[in-house]
């Protein structure tokens, strides 16, 4: 047994020595001897590194502040501190350096520092959690030294923390004494286990900085636990794709990954959705022209009904670095859909279709295509699960990876299952006198589409004024209602006359 354990330790040490940035040995609950090791110069042992460029960093010593200047810290510039999360393999994940490089490249006059707390993070999860306050305190000490020595205002500090790093950043904020708060904290999928449901002082919370934002990407719950925290912890909490899971990280891949890569495959898949928060944040810096908008909503099921695409009174905001920093009294939950890869931006459209006097309950499948001044949507298949009966207004959300521009035309067709088609065909042959009328029809009322990104709502009217009814399998074309053109709004009266005439002409 002990031989086996020794072998394990050796194996582990071998693997770990391949890592570039590792310090100290790995202590763990099952292996208490390993915890006995030469002490780090500081008790807690967080290490701060100023990012210089490429792979180069310079170690800062908060106790010897002259190291800051010699490293090239510029106290007239803002400071961003990136803090990593729990570590399974004891290595710094590659996104940390990448994020630092992107921040430095985009913002130029900025100090980017990375918190390295790997030897505490590379422990069993509960132990790593216990260290989060300590590491938070280390960051607070660093900031206090800066305040003292350089009169550095902490409101120029932006802490970015991933997973456990998000809560560390929160603790750093709450440890700072004095009236001035940290400027901003961004929590990237803040860790869930042992933080969910805790009081605001025991996790990242809006009190920890002037402005706090969080991106929740992996809150999918299993056995009552989720990797990322579900509850709102910031002023603005973003839940891309509902927050529980992310496109392109599909679960059926888990088994493929595990069979191919063993348990590391599992880790990759778990990391996919968790780490998506990081990539969404980077995306906001890398694709300036493709900023993702998110919309305030009570929950994701309301969001996918399309009813939340409203930007009045700061109900929407920009995901990532360029967020509008509006302080709010209560946490706001914002939702959006994204693509499965960078650039993640999608354009959101809410459809509202009114059904009038529907005598039989139907669950139609609609095939819709939209044409705008910039692009066409292509065919979109909408399956409606809720039965439509009587007068119903249906609302649903469509997302597209391109901006259609001003909406001009909508093509709609109504498909039913083959079985129903057969029934209707048979009915027609039994009751031939029914003629055209026995073909099932739907009567549509108002049709409108709202684009979330532009906040424009467009109403559609049938093209030839031939009424709003639509038959099975008929391709019906609707165009932007004339009243809808803002430039012509003032000439409304003359247009009505025009319309009246055209109706008479068709008679
Ligand atoms: C610090 O940054 C500012 C720009 O924000 C620049 O003008 C100044 O020269 C920099 N100082 C040093 C010592 O590099
Ligand atoms: C709907 O049915 C009512 C009677 O139930 C009728 O008065 C009304 O004209 C119908 N409306 C349309 C748009 O067909
Ligand atoms: C549906 O709306 C129409 C007017 O658009 C109205 O005449 C009709 O009575 C309504 N039917 C029901 C069942 O409410
Ligand atoms: C439409 O035409 C009718 C005559 O057919 C007329 O009485 C009515 O006033 C016209 N409506 C408008 C809005 O001009």
UniProtKB/TrEMBL annotation:
It is an enzyme of class 3 (hydrolase). Residues 483-507 are annotated as: Disordered. It catalyses: 1,2-dihexadecanoyl-sn-glycero-3-phosphocholine + H2O = hexadecanoyl-sn-glycero-3-phosphocholine + hexadecanoate + H(+); 1,3-di-(9Z-octadecenoyl)-glycerol + H2O = 3-(9Z-octadecenoyl)-sn-glycerol + (9Z)-octadecenoate + H(+); 1,2,3-tri-(9Z-octadecenoyl)-glycerol + H2O = 2,3-di-(9Z)-octadecenoyl-sn-glycerol + (9Z)-octadecenoate + H(+); 1,2,3-tri-(9Z-octadecenoyl)-glycerol + H2O = di-(9Z)-octadecenoylglycerol + (9Z)-octadecenoate + H(+). Catalyzes the hydrolysis of triglycerides and phospholipids present in circulating plasma lipoproteins, including chylomicrons, intermediate density lipoproteins (IDL), low density lipoproteins (LDL) of large size and high density lipoproteins (HDL), releasing free fatty acids (FFA) and smaller lipoprotein particles. Also exhibits lysophospholipase activity. Can hydrolyze both neutral lipid and phospholipid substrates but shows a greater binding affinity for neutral lipid substrates than phospholipid substrates. Its EC number is 3.1.1.3, 3.1.1.32, 3.1.1.5. One of its GO terms (cellular component) is high-density lipoprotein particle. CDD domains: Pancreat_lipase_like. One of its GO terms (molecular function) is phosphatidylcholine lysophospholipase activity. Residues 1-19 form the signal peptide. It is found in: Secreted. The lineage of its organism: Eukaryota, Metazoa, Chordata, Craniata, Vertebrata. Keywords: Calcium, Glycoprotein, HDL, Heparin-binding, Hydrolase, Lipid degradation, Lipid metabolism, Metal-binding, Secreted, Signal. PROSITE patterns: PLAT (PS50095). InterPro entries: AB_hydrolase_fold, Lipase, Lipase_hep, Lipase_LIPH, Lipase_N, PLAT/LH2_dom, PLAT/LH2_dom_sf, TAG_lipase. The active site is at residues 163, 189, 274. Homodimer. GO terms for biological process: lipid catabolic process. It comes from the Eukaryota. Residues 347-480 form the PLAT domain. Belongs to the AB hydrolase superfamily. Lipase family. Ca(2+) binds at residues 203, 208. This is Hepatic triacylglycerol lipase.
């Amino acid at each position: 047994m002990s031989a086996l354990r020794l072998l394990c330790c050796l194996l582990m040490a071998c693997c770990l020595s391949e890592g570039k940035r590792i310090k100290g040995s790995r202590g763990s609950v099952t292996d208490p001897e390993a915890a006995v090791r030469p002490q780090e110069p500081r008790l807690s042992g967080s290490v701060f590194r100023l990012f210089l460029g490429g792979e180069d960093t310079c170690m800062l010593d908060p106790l010897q502040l002259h190291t800051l200047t010699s490293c090239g810290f510029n106290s007239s510039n803002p400071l961003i501190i990136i803090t990593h999360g729990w570590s399974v393999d004891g290595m710094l994940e590659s996104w940390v350096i990448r994020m630092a490089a992107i921040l430095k490249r985009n913002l130029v006059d900025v100090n980017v520092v990375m918190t390295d707390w790997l030897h505490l993070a590379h422990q069993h999860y509960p132990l790593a959690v216990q260290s989060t306050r300590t590491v938070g305190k280390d960051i607070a000490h660093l900031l206090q030294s800066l305040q003292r020595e350089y009169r550095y205002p902490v409101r120029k500090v932006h802490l970015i923390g991933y997973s456990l790093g998000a809560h560390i950043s929160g603790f750093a904020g709450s440890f700072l004494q004095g009236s001035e708060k940290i400027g901003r904290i961004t929590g990237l999928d803040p860790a869930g286990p042992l933080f969910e449901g805790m009081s605001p002082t025991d996790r990242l919370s809006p009190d920890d900085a002037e402005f706090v934002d969080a991106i929740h990407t992996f809150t999918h719950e299993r056995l009552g636990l989720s990797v990322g925290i579900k509850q709102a912890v910031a002023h603005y909490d973003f839940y891309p794709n509902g927050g529980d899971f992310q496109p392109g990280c599909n679960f059926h891949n888990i088994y493929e990954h595990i069979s191919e890569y063993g348990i590391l495959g599992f880790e990759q898949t778990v990391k996919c959705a968790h780490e998506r928060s990081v990539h969404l944040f980077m995306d906001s810096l890398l694709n300036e022209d493709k900023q993702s908008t998110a919309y305030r909503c009570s929950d994701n099921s309301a969001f996918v009904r399309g009813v939340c695409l409203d930007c009045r009174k700061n109900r929407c905001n920009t995901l990532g670095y360029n967020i509008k920093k509006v302080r709010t009294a209560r946490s706001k939950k914002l939702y959006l859909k994204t693509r499965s890869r960078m650039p993640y931006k999608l354009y959101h459209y809410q459809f509202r279709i009114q059904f009038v006097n529907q005598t039989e309950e139907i669950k139609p499948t609609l095939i819709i295509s939209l044409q705008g001044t910039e692009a066409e949507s292509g065919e979109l298949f909408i399956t409606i699960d809720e039965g439509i009966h009587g007068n119903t207004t249906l609302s649903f959300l469509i997302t597209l990876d391109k901006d259609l521009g001003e909406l001009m035309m909508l093509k709609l067709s109504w498909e039913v299952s083959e079985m129903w088609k057969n029934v209707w065909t048979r009915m027609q042959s039994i009751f031939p006198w029914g003629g055209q009328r026995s073909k099932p029809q739907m009567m549509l009322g108002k049709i409108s589409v709202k684009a979330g990104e532009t906040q424009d709502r467009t109403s559609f009217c049938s093209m030839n004024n031939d009424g709003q009814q639509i038959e099975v399998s008929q391709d019906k074309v609707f165009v932007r209602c004339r009243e809808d053109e803002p430039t012509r709004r003032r000439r409304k009266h003359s247009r009505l006359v025009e319309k009246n005439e055209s109706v008479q002409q068709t008679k």
